[in-house]
Design a protein that fits this description.
- This protein is mostly helical and 636 residues long.
- It is built from 15 helices and six strands.
- The strands form three sheets. Strands 1-2 form a two-stranded parallel ribbon. Strands 3-4 form a two-stranded antiparallel ribbon.
- α11 runs antiparallel to α12 (361-419), α11 (290-356) packs antiparallel against α13 and α13 runs parallel beside α15.
- The longest helix has 99 residues, at 444-542.
- The chain starts with a helix and ends with a helix.
Length: 636
Amino acid sequence: MSRATSGRPSDLPMRVQDSNRMSMYTTPKSKQPSFGKLNIPKPQSVTSERRTSFFGARTVGGASMPCNSTMSGFGGTEKIKDTRPLHDKSFVQQCIRQLHEFLTEQGYPGILSAKILQSPSTKEFVKVFEFVYRQLDPTFEMPNSKVEEEVPAILKALRYPFVLSKSAMYSVGAPHTWPQALGALMWLIDQVKINWSLSKQDLLFSEFCEDSDNIEEGTEYNKLLLEYIADAYSKFMQGEDTFDDVDELFINKLKKMYNVDEALLASMEEKYRLLSDEVERLERECQTDRLMTKRMDRVKLQADLKKLQSYRSNLESFQGNLENRASELSYELEVTGSQLESLKREQNELQLLLQNQKFTPADVERINREKRELQQTIASLSKSLEDAEQHKWMEEIALSKVKEKAELKVAEYQKLARKLKLIPVSAENACGNDFEIRPFERGNGSMIQHKTQIQMLLRKLVSDVEEENSRLANMKLSLEESCEQVNSNIMDKSNDLKQMREQIRKVDERLDSDMQELAQEEQGWAAEVESVENHRTILEKKVTYGYDEAVQQLKAAQQQYNLVLQETNEERRTVANNLASVVETAVNHLSITEKCLEDLHGRVERFCSKAVEEDEAAVQKLRETLKSFTSKASGL
């Protein structure tokens, strides 16, 4: 019944079908379960005309429409946006860990490590893709040529909702293409797990029922399923889009019918949560490489120290040059001042001589000429003095700028030293030494001595850091050796795990054979009971006295036998359920598997022996009763 004919338009937007849930209106591509199976999912609240699936074709009016990377809507065609955070480093690392765990559990034949999965080559990616796809199709073989076109074609055939371009296959390990390829692998792994869950859906409840009868195909389960479908459909027709209360009621009834142990499920979930937290903690501890961080810090500090030393040496040489130039300029200034004083004294003497003597015109002309020469000399000397003072002023400005730059560099040195905990004297890495530079508080000699002392202390500190780094490197080598030893132990334990699984399989086969023997014995007992009943019918014709009493006793014996048989079946079902729980626990807890199996076999033998003894006692009693009836009949 379509949406158009129901007369009830929905107020919600078009929804996308979940890949992990099958629609009750469409036929799944994998193994189709029977009508009364336990794992029939919740029915969707939309019909096939409203639904657009990421992983299946949309069917409208019997016509099939392929669903690729676009989704049909009322407004045309729009591209599906990948909502997974594929460019988030933490999400990518989580996907890599899940891929590594899946490949390890399924026995990937090639070389496998987390480092390779960080940036695999195209060849390695094709091998991993072929291994994962073989979980769906064991007969699949990857062609030797054009694998870059084969992988996107396979994903498209599997209805992968997003596009993996052919050009991305030529450089799978690149940072911009590896997240998309990793997302496609994770989607394929999810499909494999869904296929496994669908193929194993009859295992949990069908093999342990009485006389191999599947209780899910009985009238009780079909009644529950039909009631659930009817309630959900009635609510859907009333205008509701969610059926949480109907789903919860149906699940509670199923749990009650199958006797689901909630306490056991809760305890297993708690154990799984604790183990997951422990694994995440160990992975975080393994990912933090403090030694590499220390090495990077040491390299940075060494580079900064070399730059600081070279800059300090350049600054000291430039300061020495400036001091030499300043001393030369001061000396020239003193010489020029002394010359000026001598010229002034000579001028005064000549002035006195001019006042006290009488000169001829030739002397006056000579004196004037000398005066002009002296004035020119004075003007040139005055100009040179002004130039010298201007030069001195510029040099003082340059010296002040250099001093400011030196103060800035010293401040940077002080800041770096404080960051490295070298100053003050009471700092952690100072060791009682004074690494602080005070450039304008000491003389040149004490400054050079202090510089030499700081350089010696810094060289000693660098040597100590290098020794510490060598010690950490040795420690890293020892840790790597221990890690290799732990890996070898893990391989040994995995081999032991395979052996234990093989032993469990053998025990299961032996248990099946024992169950078959018990079934044969039950058939023999049934044949014997049938012979006794035939003999009883013969005795009924001959015996007339005490017939009613004998019939009542025989019915009581039959009821007792049926009760004993029912108890035996119940005990056998209990044993089978216990065996299922033991097998499930053995996968996660191999340390207690042998003990549980021994206890289980002991209980099975005791129950079987007890049942056999009780049945034999009941048959023997029945025989004695028949013999007594026979003797009484013969006596009459």
